[in-house]
Amino acid sequence: MLRLIAVISMIADHAALLLIGYGIMSGLPVGCNAYERWNAIVTGLRVLGRMAFPIFAWLIAEGYARTRNWRKYAVRLLLLALISELPFDWVAFGRWGVQWEYQNTVFTLLLGLLALRGGDFLQGRMRRIGSGAGSWYAAIMAATAAACVAALVIRSDYSWEGVVLIVLLYHTRADRKRQCIMGFLWSAMVWGILLPPVFMIGYAAAFLFLYYLQDCGGEHAVCARVPVRRDKMLRWAVYLVYPVHLLILWEIYCRILIA
């Protein structure tokens, strides 16, 4: 259920940006009645779209906690990020070509996963030399800082703030209420100053869904009740919906709105 909510909100967000923002509204005079009506629709869809990243961030944290092979997990995310980059650029900027100044969200998810692995690796080293809890926290912070710098260098969507959210959700997962409150407060603090206040409704809704649906909608809660083969197909379908829906939106945009 959580994955479905994230996918629907993501598609709504990207459709609003490309088809309405870059498409329909680009041909309307700013301030006219039609423009204002479409602008209200775009705002509503983009508020809905704010639910996607927190849920995907939670899925990364949950997936890392339960995966048997983090390397395969990381490789899948890397392949998805590379495959998705061109269609992401077209949809995000509304024009053909490679846009080097901004990279897709999956890179941020991958860096969040690597931050979690790096923190665990450094903590293991600290335990071997008998370091205390303070050194373990320093290890988490060092790995997170490295991933944040990488996000800033490549200029990935949601950037370092998204990496920190993944780490935060992972290390507060033992207490669901604390996890959701901390996640929302972080989202409101780092993105609330950049976005209209109404967008906070989307972030609040995301963490409400995370609080109430974790038991029935987690990365592995549902999968534990389905055959392994079917689970793998479902997981790959969720992965592939990201580049596929971007390509479909771009095709609609090119054939209908700018034909």
Describe the biggest sheet? none
Approximately how much beta-strand content do the residues carry? under 5%
Structural class comes to mainly alpha
Give the proportion of residues in helices. Answer: over 70%
> In DSSP terms, counting alpha (H) and pi (I) runs of 4 or more, how many helices?
10
Q: Strand tally, please?
A: 0
Mean pLDDT: 88
Order of helices and strands: HHHHHHHHHH
User: Based on CA inertia axes, which overall geometry fits?
Assistant: globular
Distance between the termini: 37 Å
| Poorly predicted segments | 217-228
Radius of gyration: 19 Å
Can you walk through the features of this model?
The chain has 259 residues and is mostly helical. It is built from 10 helices and no strands. The protein has helices spanning 2-24, 33-49, 52-66, 70-93, 105-128, 133-154, 159-171, 176-191, 200-217, 228-257. The longest helix is centred in the last third of the chain and has 30 residues, at 228-257. The protein is globular. The two termini are 37 Å apart. Mean pLDDT is 88; it is low at 217-228.
